[in-house]
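Q: Two folds, back to back.
A: First:
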Amino acid sequence: MRRAAAVALGGIALTLVAFLFDAAPLFVPGIAFTLLGLAAPAWISLAAGGATIHRTLLTDRVVEEEPLEASIEVSRGPWGLPGAELLDPLAGAPVPLHNWLSLISGGRTANIRVVARFSRRGHVMVEQPTLVVRDALELARSERRSAGNPAQLLVLPRTERVRWVGQDLGRTDPNGAQTAAEPVAASELDGLRPYRPGTPASRIHWPALARGAGLLERRMRADRDSFPLVVLDARCSGEPEHLDAAVRAAASLVLELAQRGGCGLLLPGERRAVEVERDLSAWPGVHARLALVEAAEEGQVPRLAPGSRLGRLFYVAAQPLDRLPPALVSGAQMAGVLVLPRPLATGVSQPTSFEVMGCRGFILGGRQRVPMRERRRPEAAIGVSR
């Protein structure tokens, strides 16, 4: 508005000069400049006050690098929207609207479709869009922000299929490897689930079938204990990208193993694993919790007692380990798997078993000595003192 005020003051000055010196030719520009300086802010203020902006997000969750669509509706009042442009965090660059909402040739409403992508997981606050209105001479300018609080958006870690290099660790090894305990030996009931072909008749829940609920089977406690377990170690003293890669790898492993029959996930700071079964009913909640994982302190080691799980254990770490967790190398019926981001896996001598989301997995035998990152031997240093 400063330019408009300067023009109005200039017009008043010309008018006063015309009166003082009886200079009739100065009356016309003086009055014109005065009216222009007063009319431009009034017009822009009325135009901006009559406009409305409403943005609609198609979803409040989006996976990394996947498109998020938003629809923004802008309506003008009877004064038009001269020189209007829309500023929205999702659009990135300003969106010109003066041709669509012109008082002479434009309509009263414009619908803008915006597509945005997010490269990193986590909680994102998206500010409301802002409408900027200005006259052609840019004497006056007004901004109008959409009503409402910033939108809450959750960016989920992306996943991909696991690329098995050697043995497929997602299934039980049929060639002599020790398998998980037989669930039939379990005696503690842990609920019901849909019937799976091959289940013994003793496990079928006949009362549910009689009530018309369909064919269901009893799920025993040992079923979940025999699931593979993914442990996420969020300690990260290096680059944040290493933790992001570890989270994506953990999410990909959980999704792949769950689709094959079931999987557990032990999150940082938790004492009990979250179970994700074949129907993936628990997956949306697990995916959201993985999106909010933050770097843990050095002393926050995942708590997992040796021998607490019968299935294979996948330990996903975001930094090199000084020593392997006891549950990974002892007391387990199946060989454990260590998963590290690719830049941190150069010091592991074991062959790569699989790759996923920029991480590599290595099989670690229960009694096998696994060399970690090579420790540099101290070298003699030659110093010169002055």
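A: Second:
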Amino acid sequence: MPPLVEEGKAPVLSFHSGKAFYKDIQDFKAADSVKMPPANAILLIGSSSFTYWRDVSAYFPGYTILNRGFGGSTLPDLIRYQDFIIYPYKPKQVLIYCGENDFASSDSVDVTTVVNRFKQLFWDIRVRLPKVPISYVAMKPSPSRYRLLPKYIEGNRQIRTFLATQKLTSFIDVFPAMLGPDGRPIGKLFTADSLHMNAEGYAIWQKIIRPYLKKGN
């Protein structure tokens, strides 16, 4: 089994406090106590691009979708809370959208750091769920974070390259479809904050993501 942290690298730590997102996790647990979601669903985990996709199930009729995104989260937060947001649900596929906030947290966070964080999350999941497909949705080009696009592009490239070496994986590249002819993010795909997507943005994601969703059991 590959190491969870690459040799010579410091252990993964979040820039958030240990109490960050505690309420979000408690809300998930409370909802589960009322009605546990069905097993064998396609599980979405990650940050606000998933959190705000509240009607995601309507975009993918015929699939059972479970959304456990929590806004503002980083890859270390997913690692910290994985026991609560992944394994209780016995998913048939895991989709991850995370990484944007890692870079936005500090200019000192580099591509190597974020890619290593993703690898740690990947191996954690793979050890526990060896036969479950893991898909990564590329970091999107948010207009409000335009200065970070070079980091997103390189981070996406390295994660794609890593996943290509692993079985039962896919890299879902939503990035190019969200750029205009001038190579800049298409503003009309986003809400007024130029960070989160509107229905038009999610419609683009729907078309790109659908072919990667696992059918059947």
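Q: And?
A: The beta strands are 42-46, 65-67, 93-97, 134-137, 169-172.
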